[in-house]
Amino acid sequence: MSRVATPDAAGERTGMRVHVKGVVQGVGFRPFVFGLARRHGLAGWVRNSSAGVDIAVDGEPASLDRFLEALRAEAPPLAAIDVLEVSRCPRHGFAAFEIVPSAPVAGAYQPVSPDVGTCDNCLRELFDPGDRRYRYPFINCTHCGPRYTIIVDMPYDRPQTTMAPFAMCPDCAREYGDPLDRRFHAQPVACPACGPHVWLAMPHRPAPLAEADAAVRQTQAALRAGKIVAVKGLGGFHLACDAGNPDAIRRLRARKRRSDRPFAVMMPDVATVQRFCLVAPAEAALLRARERPIVLLDRLPGSTLAADCAPGLDTLGVMLPYTPLHHLLFAAGGDGQGPWAFAALVMTSGNVSEEPIAFRDAEALRDLAGIADLFLLHNREIHARCDDAVVRAAPNDRPASVYALRRARGYAPRPIRLAEDGPALLATGAHFKNAFCLTRGRDAFLSPHVGDLENFETLRAFEAAVAHCERLFRVHPVAIAHDMHPDYLATRYAQDRAARDGLPAFAVQHHHAHIAAAMAEHRLPPEEPVIGIAFDGTGYGLDGAVWGGEFLIGDVGHFERALHLTYVPLPGGDQAARYPWRMALSWLRHAGIPWSPDLAPVQAARPDELAVSDRWLQSDDATLKAMAPLTSSMGRLFDAIAALSGGRQAVTYEAQAAVELEALARAGPVAAPYPFAFSGPTVDAAPLIQAAVADIRAGAGTPLIAARFHHGVAHMVREACSRLRAAHGLRRVVLSGGVWQNTWLLGLTLPLLSDDGFAVTIHEAVPANDGGLALGQATVARYRMERT
Ligand code: ZN
Ligand code: ZN
Ligand code: FE
Question: d(Cα 188, Cα 169) in Å, to the nearest integer?
Fold first, then answer.
């Protein structure tokens, strides 16, 4: 143990105990306390417990006060103090200050730090030829490196991580044991002499082609030659290729069977990003943030790189390097500050279409063999899989505030602080973009993105992640919350689990859960009613119809459906989401416009498809009607407009038509909004469809129609809100659901609402889409358990 002698002025000293809760382990907190104690002349000890950090000290009363103040004010960058419990006591009689071994507390839990991008100090050492970790791909310290993805169990100590097999060499052990070293108790500390290493391999051939630095250099050469390399990262594998090489991208698309879905790219620094994208200061801050998310940026006109990576879109998802290995792949000699080997690398999730990201060597070598030419592997095991997070800069003026599109690495599993205490429960989330949520006390742990629960592999990944997080956070659910949709795998898991464990299960309506999620994220009072506007693609309604254009009045416990988009048939059910022309036909029929061959959706359908659609929409026969269930989906209205205006008729990824329509609207002129009609509880888009068809027949281009449509929706929302305010006396508006990830629509809507006197709540770190749903399910179920 390290000690500092402290002169003891007997008589004037008193004792103090401090218990610190929050993210305080694995972030350099104990050395920080050690330094503070020394500075203030205190004696005593600090230790990790599985419930936080405990401190016991003796000192002069004024020094104790200053110590407490500094504890909060100067905490290390990655620490997040939630609670400081302080009690004064008589002097203990300590003679020195020391860091003592961890004291486990049964059942207690500790927030787990997310993974953190390489810090500047480590980066400097990485490219310093005199440093013993020069070009070592696993350099890290207490301020950076892997966390969540390598932790097997808590408390966070090396034997409980996937670093356990690597015995520290004497040099690493000295740094690890020295309270004044940046690597003091950095659990993943390692060096070339004792730590993990990388190697390059070919598919189906276990023998390495090259190891250590030679493997990095050969990977660089292979990427430059247009090869596709599967790179083992922090939370899983990436498929990488040179983003400046259209052939390589085409090959990757063909092998991954991903025709237009956008690929994220990694660029070496912000200056490079600015060559391809518009980067506002808030966006630059997000790119550089230690979470290192993929930031969705507006691309510069004429950027061919962006066109290859994100066809049909005006945005490009960009991230900066976040592991030492990434930095090495970009460096073309020098000090890691340029010149660069690449302006951009495609870095897309290493998965077979729709399956979870591969994170174990064996499965990657098997599943990605048909896609990757080479594999850059390493022997530090990934324990928990974690995708890259995707964010946008929030459409408000607050600097660096994020608007999450996918919550994952860097953000998860940081807990979300809830408005109130409550029972521990599991909410299983939605079908698409699944994430689940565990609650404990006032903390909600929203899981990293799991994926679409459409296949066995994703369900397995979901179950494994639930089990892992329950153990890690010491959560023993006393109830299960789930969606109302009877066929969702997440619903079936919830019901099976509830039956097996004898727990109550709560079915929560999809759009109510969306609104509750946004309320929970911002700790709005659970019993204060709001106007909740949930716009998304699909969600099971109380009447069995497919909801998605919903205006709810309610609080966390209750809701009434005050207004909704008119019901129209969804021709072919779920299939309609893949073929926007089908929704266009349905809306045309509803608006009383014949399916004449001058209209793009009519051209897009084969004659037999037109005939079948006609029967579905026309017939009174129950079987045929069941083929076209009713929907109030706003997402599907976006599809209909996309198809009608000559945009996308068939999609290759979810929400593609709507995302492209948003891009066209951004490029479109400022134009008069299309009208909606209000009648009773419904908001009818028939007048909008009629106006759009008139524009089309007058020769208007898609951007104008897209622009008028977006303005139309924004104005309709304002009109609906003022009607609901008149009827219910509410001025708090909450916006949630996947449609609100359209930041163009959001940007048009927010000023209309605030100019009209509404207080508007939008999502931030919790996604507005189904990735945030579980948080809402959890809070609704808690409310019902506690209050009814
Ligand atoms: Zn570091
Ligand atoms: Zn070492
Ligand atoms: Fe939804």
Answer: 13
Q: Rounded to the nearest whole angstrom, what is the distance from the C-alpha of residue 391 to the centroid of ligand 1?
A: 24
pLDDT at 106 exceeding the cut of 90: no
The helix (H) or strand (E) run that includes residue 513 is helix 510-521
d(CA 206, CA 195): 21
Q: How high is the pLDDT of residue 108?
A: 67
pLDDT in tens, 676-690: 999 999 999 999 999
Q: Report residue 205: phi and psi, to 5°.
A: -130, 105
* Ligand 2 geometric centre to CA of 145 (Å): 16
What's the full length of the chain, in residues?
788
**Distance from C-alpha of 104 to C-alpha of 667, rounded to nearest angstrom:** 58
Cis amide bond preceding 321, omega within 30? no
Alpha carbon 758 to its chain centroid, in Å, reads: 28
For 249, phi then psi, to 5°, come to: -65, -40
CA of 737 from ligand 3 middle (Å) equals 5
The yes-or-no verdict on residue 397 having pLDDT over 60 is no
DSSP helix/strand/coil, 256: helix
Query: How far, in Å, CA of 521 to CA of 604, rounded?
Result: 42
CA 526 to chain CA mean position, Å:
24
Q: How far apart are CA 698 and CA 692, in angstroms?
A: 10
Tell me how far the alpha carbon of residue 145 lies from the centroid of ligand 1, in angstroms.
7
**Ligand 1 centre and the CA of 282: distance in Å?**
24
Contacts of 280 by beta carbon, 8 Å cutoff, 6+ apart: 393
Smallest CA-to-CA distance from 640 within 579, 716, 690, 593 is with 579
Taking only the tens place, the pLDDT of each residue in 668-726 is 888 899 999 999 999 999 999 999 999 999 999 999 999 999 999 999 999 999 999 99
Residues facing 349 on adjacent strands: 238
Closest-approaching ligand to the CA atom of 142: 1
Residue 758's Cβ-count burial label (10 Å; 0-12, 13-18, 19+) is: buried
Q: What's the CA-to-centroid distance between 183 and ligand 2, angstroms?
A: 11
**Six-digit token string for 703:** 């951007």
Best CA proximity match to 667, nearest among 299, 305, 264: 299
Cα separation, 664 vs 667, in Å, equals: 5
Q: Of 743, 426, 512, which is closest to residue 520 (Cα–Cα)?
A: 512
Whether the Cβ atoms of residue 265 and residue 272 lie closer than 8 Å to each other = no
Sheet holding 480-483, edge to edge: 416-417, 443-446, 437-440, 426-427, 480-483, 505-508
Secondary structure percentages of the chain, helix, strand, coil, to 5: 35, 20, 40
Percent of the chain with pLDDT over 70: 97
Tell me which ligand sits closest to the C-alpha of residue 741. 3
CA of 263 to the centre of ligand 1 (A): 28
What are the structure tokens assigned to 142, written together?
Answer: 């207490």
| CA distances for 402 relative to 294, 379, 554, 569, 739, angstroms | 11, 34, 27, 37, 17
Structure tokens at 233: 């990262």
- Rounded to the nearest angstrom, the distance between the alpha carbon of 457 and the centre of ligand 3 is 22
Question: Phi and psi of 490, rounded to 5°?
Answer: -65, -35
Give the mean model confidence (pLDDT) for residues 233-247.
Answer: 96
From the list 594, 599, 596, the residue with the least C-alpha distance to 617 is 594
**Ligand number, closest to the Cα atom of 195:** 2
For residue 440, the cross-strand partners are 443
- ∠145-417-236 over CA atoms, to 5°? 30
- CA 166–ligand 2 middle distance (angstroms): 9
> What is the Cα gyration radius of the chain?
28
1 Cα to the center of ligand 2, angstroms: 20
Which ligand has the minimum distance to the alpha carbon of residue 122? Answer: 1
Q: What are phi and psi of 413, to 5 degrees?
A: -105, 40
Residue with token string 């929302």? 717
Tens-digit pLDDT profile for residues 164-198: 999 999 999 999 988 888 998 899 999 999 999 99
* Whole-structure pTM value: 0.92
